[in-house]
Amino acid sequence: MYYEPLTQDHGLRHTPLKALVFPRPIGWISTVNAQGQPNLAPYSFFNLVSDAPAMVEFCSSGEKDSLRNCEATGEFVANLVSARQTQQMNASSTALPSEVNEFEFAGLQAVASQSVKAPRVDGAPASLECKVHDIIELPSSQPGRRNAMVLGLVTGVYIDDTYIKDGMVDQAAMTLLARCGYRDYAKIERVFELGRPDD
Ligand SMILES: Cc1cc2nc3c(=O)[nH]c(=O)nc-3n(C[C@H](O)[C@H](O)[C@H](O)COP(=O)(O)O)c2cc1C
Question: Which of 139, 147, 153, 169 sits in a 20 to 30 Å window from 163, CA-based?
Answer without folding.
Answer: 153
